[in-house]
Design goal:
Chain lengths: 265, 507
Amino acid sequence: MWHVLLSRIQQGHRTAKYPKQAPTLPDRLRGLPVLDPSQCPEGCNECVEACPTDAVRFDEQGLGLDLGRCLFCQDCTNACPEGAIRFTTEHRLAAREREALIIRGEIQERVQALDQKMLSLFQRSLKLREVSAGGCNGCEADVNVLGTLVFDLGRFGIQVVASPRHADGLIITGPVTENMKLALKKTYDAVPEPKIVIAVGACAISGGPYAGHEEQHNGASSVVPVDLYIPGCPPAPYTILDGLLGMLDRLGPERLRAFTEAAKR
Amino acid sequence: MSATSLLKLANGAAVPLSKVPRLELAAFREAIISGCKRDRRVSALFGTPHADGLALYGVLADDAAGMLECAWTVLVGDEFPSMTPECPEVHLFEREIAEQWGVVPAGHPWLKPVRFHSSYRPGHDAWGRAQDVTPLIGVTNFLRVEGEEIHEVAVGPVHAGVIEPGHFRFQCHGEHVFHLEISLGYQHRGVERKLVGGPTKRTIHFMETLSGDTSIGHATAYCQNLESLGGEHAMPRGHWLRGIAQELERLANHTGDLGALAGDVGFLPTASYCGRLRGDFLNMSAVLCGSRFGRGLVRPGGVTFDVDEVRLEDLRKRLEAGAKDVTNAVQLLWAMPSAMARFEDTGRVPTDVAAELGLVGPAARACGLRRDVRTSHPYGIYQLTHIPLATLDSGDVYARAYVRWLEIKRSIDFIRIQLGEGPRGGIRSECPPPKPEHFAVSLVEGWRGEICHVALTDASGQFAAYKVIDPSFHNWMGLAMSLRDQQISDFPICNKSFNLSYCGHDL
């Protein structure tokens, strides 16, 4: 009994002051990539050829990078002779629309809040069921960690629950393997309406490194409609938390201001 | 059949394919069966297409001598006498060969699909299914116990926690479990087939996501193969940083497991402290390379990120703070009689069963088996500095938990010493492309146990076959056996005490 209390004192209070204080992130974190197409030498295609998942492309709008496919591996930046692509430590990456994940030269705020009706239902209480459908346990681990006392997801009214019947929505990880497709569909159907689907990680958004394999379905949107995309391989815990809170409009105008400041760095 | 006809190979070495002896099928079987009777373990047994039928490759580990023994054979027909009745540890290897290549290991006592996919050789199917019939996941002949008041509990693939999918069937009498059958394959995403023809630009990313919590372990096993096939050693400083990263991976996962075990018996102080500490150790990996899982760190020839004195000092401070708190958090658990009452004598796997099933890693060491690749087949930094082997012999949940605690302490000691000073020089050498028609085996002690990668290159130096054996592949049957004659309510702690990988098994 006493040693439990003494231990409690030693372990201290560990819950981060987020979102009031910005999170402390590792200096080597590979967060939001920034593109500078003006640096691209004529006819150079090195980054496109180096990318393992076809996230980097040249199209009619010029150089683009699809965060939904990106593994944040730096194979493109290592291949680029001019430094036209660089990764910043900006952790805020989530978006409500698939198209908004494709970044160009400009940086924009991407995650939009739910509409008023959905906010009135879920802003202060959101129960989610997680389905791993071919995930490697990286995204699953970084969803799980939000439940630890550092992040304390419960203080935002968000909770991962044991049954889809008790849930307001799904968190999906993994590329959706053929062998999990039916189970995912059944789990989705078991969640009462209205419901939210959150795709976490490159696999759940696009198939990630497994895109194109016949054993999987290139992500969650092949089976269910997706309301929030959280890129990364895996996304950092704060990236996931930012996406969830941004969707619930829990971060306020401060978030946008911080975002534009980060983009200037 | 004498053992001398097998090729002896050191961990992390490559030889021309022509040096690997081709045996007659009977001699190949005999080599594996008699090898297992002489304290060898089966590290790999797999098939790959051959002009005359199906080539079967076998790799035995001789832990006492620190050597690997390799041979191959060609199977001409669609059937071969199963080795499982005489050598149970190959049971899943034979099931995998049957499913992938459509050959029947005749006499196999438990011949069921492993990952529920169609045969990779059109026209050959171990169960005689038509070519256009796609196997349905989880549809197989599960073992059923019949009798009055016997009931079946089926769980999964979607579980209550944030974990990967798998299907578990318990044959119960009241709370008492007679048998647990585990049926996986839900995570199958077709990795091994896509490794053939590599290395490609995706290969290293497959390696880092074979089992995402073992990114460093699998990437290291792969890079050792590429280095031996290319004929270029990794830089000493690269080996040093890989070693630190690997022990950080072990430290983080073992800490998380102890927390999860405490949580499953409702002892929340250790559960919540260890949950936080796991993150702190993962964050040390992020200090090294930006990724909490060590993604992007290990590459052929060495590593991609160096550390300067400032970063080393940051890591030292984090390690000491973590070491102090993890000791405090875990000691609470051992001092709590009600938690210990749940751990002790629960989910016991007898030593002889563990040996027969070929268990690896902490699960094997908790049964008194001295199996640790870092000690028996040392590679990289472990060739220069040794980590003492941690074993217990009770084989229960307590032993599997306590072995993890011993390993946490030893990993902390190891990292502390390594952070003192490392080899100077570059971190990464230029790794030439793999030599054509070569054979390479690489073993790494991941945090769950032995990771084995076997590479075969073709005439152009591309992978003709690349076999991955995650430690979970050996250990899932160990979990099933641990549930025999237990209460079904003890399943969560038995499961957590193994904490096996679904995606590493399903590939």
